[in-house]
Amino acid sequence: MSRLSRKFKVPEELANLYDFANSLDLRRFTHKHVQHLPSDELTSTQDLGAWMSERGLLKSGAKITPLIFETAIHLRSNLRAFLECDPNERQKNEAIHRSLNKVTQLFPLVVEVRDGDGMKLRPARNDALGGLSHIVAELHSASASGALNRLKMCAAEECRRVFFDRSKPGSRRWCLSTLCGNRMKTHTYRQRHQGAA
Fold first, then answer.
1. Cα-Cα-Cα-Cα dihedral of 181, 182, 185, 191, to 10°?
2. CA spacing 20 to 30 A to 105: which of 79, 82, 160, 191?
3. Mean of the per-residue pLDDT values for the chain?
4. In whole angstroms, what is the distance from residue 161 CA to residue 157 CA?
5. Packing angle of the helix pair 45-54, 128-145 (nearest 10 deg)
6. Quick check: 116 and 56 in contact, CB under 8 A?
């Protein structure tokens, strides 16, 4: 679990999925005189290896090939596209379903029966692709439990961070209402008043 997933109280069973989706940071706004510039934690096989190692997803000696790296980036892109959809729309978007199905089939999982703990999906391989399969297993488990509906993308165009919606009704639109929410409301207010003028 990363510092950010702990800070924002993301459930542990979603932490890798949350961190993976947010490894691409598209924020481009100024906050408290600090300019956020878009960045990507995963620009090379070495970056991906370090990212996975930090989270215990890469077994010692496992190699990340350029093909595995490309597959990981493709998975991230499709996950972000899925999370960008409103939870009510996710079930209806056939194009997103097809793309996500196509990429997730590259991550083999098996059902593991656990003593006193029911069943769980686990990677079928021990290589780097198997390590990334943990993220796909989290996606499945979160969908089954309903927690996936609370993992959303911030509606602010200059943010696009994935966040875990801890609000009681599960209806938040922004990662932080005090940051992106206020900025968007101020922007809407100004546009309305400029139009009236």
1. -130
2. 160
3. 90
4. 10
5. 60
6. no
Q: What are phi and psi of 163, to 5 degrees?
A: -135, 160
Q: What pLDDT is stored for residue 193 in this prediction?
A: 57
CB 12 within 8 A of CB 67: no
Distances (CA, A) of 111 to 108, 118, 126: 11, 10, 15
| Residue (of 183, 194, 76) closest to 132 by Cα position | 76
- pLDDT tens for residues 87-145? 989 989 999 999 999 999 999 999 999 887 788 999 999 999 999 999 999 999 999 99
Structure tokens at 64: 């990340």
State which fold the 3-196 domain adopts: Jann2411-like fold (1.10.3300)
Residue 19: HSE in the Cβ half-sphere, 13 Å Cα cutoff: 26
**Contacts for 45 with CB less than 8 Å, ≥ 6 apart:** 64, 65, 66, 68, 69
- Give the β-pairing of 162-164 and 39-40: unpaired
Q: Quote the CA–CA distance of 75 and 152 in Å, as a whole number.
A: 17
Q: Which among 153, 19, 25 is positioned nearest to 84, based on CA atoms?
A: 153
- Tokens at 163, concatenated: 């966040």
Q: Residue 127 carries which side chain, given as an amino acid letter?
A: D
Domain boundaries, the chain: 3-196
φ and ψ at residue 149, rounded to 5 degrees:
-65, -20
